[in-house]
Amino acid sequence: DAGVIQSPRHEVTEMGQEVTLRCKPISGHDYLFWYRQTMMRGLELLIYFNNNVPIDDSGMPEDRFSAKMPNASFSTLKIQPSEPRDSAVYFCASSFRLAGYIDEQFFGPGTRLTVL
Amino acid sequence: AQTVTQSQPEMSVQEAETVTLSCTYDTSESDYYLFWYKQPPSRQMILVIRQEAYKQQNATENRFSVNFQKAAKSFSLKISDSQLGDAAMYFCAYFGGGSEKLVFGKGTKLTVNP
Predict the structure, then answer these.
(1) CB within 8 Å: A56 and B100
(2) Residue B30 pLDDT
């Protein structure tokens, strides 16, 4: 398996522009997580999905952020409009769960976002 | 809410020596999972080792082992025979208590000196 795939790996944009980050989870995984990592705040969970349904979006910083998972193999995180404080590394992770067993979360390589 | 504390922002070790990274957590649950993730400069998050709370035996993975003290809520990572490739940020993480979220510590930056 190719692992969790994220695109783009790097994104540089100007303030006010729309940014879309993409993620393809590992096939068969039923959980998908979006994280943001900054020096100041560390790793923050933004939102997660189970079977394509958003379960908890309490970590989404504000209405400028939105996430979708239209099918089991694809998710997007959108920021509109973007601001310089959104500059961070954004990770997507996926996992699966069976009764009585919790698998690890497998992380993608991350997208480094820079908003000028 | 569960919290994870890594009290050592930075650590250093000489190549071939042993180093221990500390992690404590706060929970009222009895059934949970603990993880150590490694993040090298490539920024890829890689699972190093996991521990199920119901298991009394400490997990080991080659040169990596943990000291799991359930009563003390402590979960330290020991790296033996440190190698240059072990240089990375190490994150301790907690999963359990009915939550489906991983709770991460702030991380410890490990430097390996040749």
Answers:
(1) yes
(2) 86
